[in-house]
Amino acid sequence: MRTVKLNTKRYKGSKSLPTLSAFEVRQIVSDLIAEQLQLQAEGYNCSTQVVTDVLVKASVEGETIESTCDDLEAVPTGHTVRN
Predict the structure, then answer these.
(1) Is 5 a domain residue?
(2) To 10 degrees, the CA torsion angle through 67, 69, 71, 72?
């Protein structure tokens, strides 16, 4: 299991911790999901990155995989992502 750990001692006395961009957070979470769920999707229209991106977006927004796929452009159907 990979752990993401922030060295807070380095920032002791500082008023704020370093800021991660939305892209960095999404990438870390997507990588952890793929690793923990042992996802490997390599088809002609669906990759592991697409599956994890859909899972992250659906989880964050409290939506279904189907509705998340409908909201996103250039993403396969919910059925394809689920299978």
Answers:
(1) no
(2) 170
Length of the chain: 83
Answer yes or no: is 48 within a domain. yes
Report the distance separating Cα 65 and Cα 53, nearest Å.
10
**In terms of residue numbers, what domain contains 53?**
21-82
User: Is 24:49 a contact under the CB 8 Å cutoff?
Assistant: no
Per the domain annotation, does 3 fall within a domain? Answer: no
Q: What pTM was estimated for this model as a whole?
A: 0.66
Residue 71 lies in a domain: yes
Tokens of 53: 């991106």
Confidence class for position 28, pLDDT limits 50, 70, 90: confident
Q: What is the pLDDT of residues 50-81, one digit of tens each?
A: 888 898 889 888 999 999 999 988 888 888 88
Number of domains in the chain: 1
For residue 28, what are the contacts with CB-CB under 8 A and spacing of at least 6? 4, 20
